[in-house]
Amino acid sequence: MDEIFYYDRYARETRTEKVYGDKALRWTYGTIAGKISLNALVKRAAFSHWYGWRMDRSSTREKIAPFIQEYELDSSEFVRDVDEFANFNEFFYRELKPDARPIDSNPNSVVFPADGRHLCVPDLSRCDGLFVKGEMFDLATLLDDHSLTNRYASGSLLLSRLCPVDYHRFHFPAAGVPGPTKLINGPLYSVNPIALCQNIQILATNKRCITELRTEKFGNVLLLEIGATCVGSICQTYADLQPVEKGVEKGYFRFGGSSTITIFEPGRIRFDRDLIENSQHHQELYARVGDRMGALCE
What we know:
The chain is an alpha+beta fold. The protein has helices at 22-30, 32-42, 45-55, 64-70, 88-92, 139-143, 146-151, 193-196, 202-205, 273-280; strands spanning 5-8, 13-16, 109-111, 116-121, 156-162, 169-171, 177-184, 208-214, 220-226, 234-236, 249-253, 258-264, 269-271, 284-287, 292-296.
């Protein structure tokens, strides 16, 4: 694919994504030499740990200001001043002021768990593909649990893709009681559409974490965080078995693009119209954490 397009909910227009590391990504997934490098090195955890280590060096502070300018980030949203970050990684998983991401107050709504580009599947048993028609990952492989696969086979799914330019903390989409997190190890391929259009199964096989959130209105909701190339760690900051409010932080990713997946039981949620319509055209919708993604089925 030549360019990546998404629909911006706030500007109400289709935009072209500015891809961080675009040349390296296209070389890795679009050339023979790149694919050899991908399978020999890039997909392996050691490479991402090494890159994360690099982003922890104090010398990377000099990358922060140009990055903010290039990708037009609003530093007034940051909890810390720009010159307070010790390295690029600290900047990458920065916290935002609470009023920068207000949480939708409707008691029957569910909110986006992360800033990013989102696709929804109202009924997994009738999905005709995500980025490309006819291409969908295997739910059984993703969940690695036979009983969960059966329970959510006709459920509703939201895929949230975080780019390196995005706020990289993820939050609870609804109030409830979260269980412990289960880690499933796997490779660390890129989750950029350039890679996913070649192999959508990346989402089901990459390193991932699964948490079950018990809610009163929406049943048991599955929350997954998907690792990717140059994501050094998936860090959980919540306390399991302790009640949480809608929109509360769950954790954060260290350096790199990554994704979250939210899965609801059948008949629990009705996604918002703009999210459904863009997803039907295999086009992502850009929206921020705390904004409404849907509501309780009536």
